[in-house]
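[DERIVE STRUCTURE TOKENS]
===
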Amino acid sequence: MRISPVAWVLAACLCSWATLAAAADGLIELTVDGKSIQGRKLAHNSQQCWLAERDGRLQELKLARVTEFRQVAPEFSALTVMEQRDQLRTKFGKGVEVVVDGQYVVCAPPGRARPYAALLQQANQEFEAYFRVRKFELTPLEFPLVAFVFPTKEQFLTHCQRAGMGASQTLRGYYDTRTNWVYFYDEPASPLTPVAAMNGKRSSSGPGINPAARDTTVHEAVHQLAFNRGLHSRIGKSPTWVIEGLAMQFEIGSAVAPSGRRGAAPVNPARLKSFAEYRRDGRRPGALAELISGESLFSIQPVEAYSEAWMLTHYLIRTRPAKYAAYLKSCAARDPFSSYLAEERIADFRGAFGDDLAWFDVEYLRFADSVIAETLP
């Protein structure tokens, strides 16, 4: 029986993957459909693999389409922020301002990058403080954190459609796990907006950021940080309630609570109000299990699902921070090539927080009711 040259190459590649298992941090190169792609192997099975390129972009590759394979270097090194900045300045030219602030590389209309860079850096500092006081172990940042700010809402929505986002008119920004970028459109603060509401000062580059846009910027920045600091997996299937619940915890600023205590866990008034209405008007028995076990609630009742995701996250952070940290790590460590079935999600939650889900729900709702009574008029 004759074996095709491609089959021989594929067999050689598969054997080489086994050899590279012990050298997962090396820089490798695959040729797929005539295109060479270099990066670090994140995960693979017999059919596909995930690569991270030097700029942090992910590539999901079918091994059957690989025609060449080699190890380029024993060590993989990500781009530095300055290398990333220089590449983006070359790519976008003078029509886009590209600035660096810490680990952030911000691309924006000329004169508008600094306010966003300052806000993102502030979000990063709050994120660090938040988890440091809770003794969460965060993975060191490997890649530059890129943010792209479109000049107009129309340009942003056009980009979203091309990226397959299915954008709605209410979408203000999003984090893309594939590119590792966050995307927004510019919303300057009105001259009538109080400076305190902008949470980020006016600068010589012009006005600050609209308060509503600021909340979106922070929310998506937290997604980017959580996926880059080991709390979620960029190639896995972390539950939506976990991903969104954590980001909503930061929407109002997490590092300084109303008491002034740095690193405290403040209440998100808008999410709390939504949850209180949901609790009063129609939260069904079994709603907690429904949230934990799948994703459908976010499509059927998005406002209620988001509010409960925040409330549950807030409860776990306030009452079970160590167990919550361990649960996040277990979700992030799941096999990226396997589905996350409803019964597995329930079993993992019970393994982290106790077998008796009904009793957990009782305690959780008591906590929620006390927060509602203390916070809402």
Q: What stands out?
A: Residues 81-228 form a domain with the Zincin-like fold (CATH 3.30.2010.30). Strands lie at 27-32, 35-44, 48-52, 58-62, 66-73, 97-101, 104-108, 145-150, 173-176, 181-185. Confidence is low (pLDDT under 50) at residues 1-8, 192-206, 254-263.
